[in-house]
Design brief:
With 121 residues, this protein is mostly helical. Helix content is 48%, strand content 12%.
């Protein structure tokens, strides 16, 4: 859902051009973080402690087949935030491609007005 200034205005995200960012993908080393479901059942507390310390996901297998990935909460939250940011960047790129741009001084003024109005409610 996009935030809007009012019913007659475009969404705020239609006015702001995003900069291109570079992300480095670090693949999971499957050979060192693979555990069976039996191991998980027998060593859940130890595995959770290792997850918290190493902050690397563990691939869980069942009958030799990958079935799930287990990760600590902090890493999961960081990943969700990164995905949200990437979605915003992709949305911004689509808007740039569609020519939906506005000078930064106008965009900042609109955002300040929207924030001021929001906090005065």
């Amino acid at each position: 859902m996009k935030a809007t200034l009012d019913a007659n205005r475009k969404p705020l995200t239609d006015y702001i051009q995003s900069n291109t960012m570079t992300f480095t993908f670090v693949p999971m080393r499957y050979s060192t973080q693979v555990k069976s479901i039996s191991y998980l059942k027998a060593n859940a507390a130890e595995l959770l402690q290792t997850l918290a310390e190493q902050r690397e996901p563990v691939l869980i297998t069942q009958n030799g087949e990958a079935k799930a990935v287990l990760q600590d909460v902090g890493s999961f939250e960081e990943m969700q935030e990164m995905l949200a940011l990437l979605k915003c960047l992709a949305m911004g790129d689509r808007e740039v491609d569609a020519g939906q741009l506005q000078p930064i001084d106008v965009a900042v003024a609109d955002l300040r007005t929207a924030l001021r109005d929001e906090f005065q409610r």
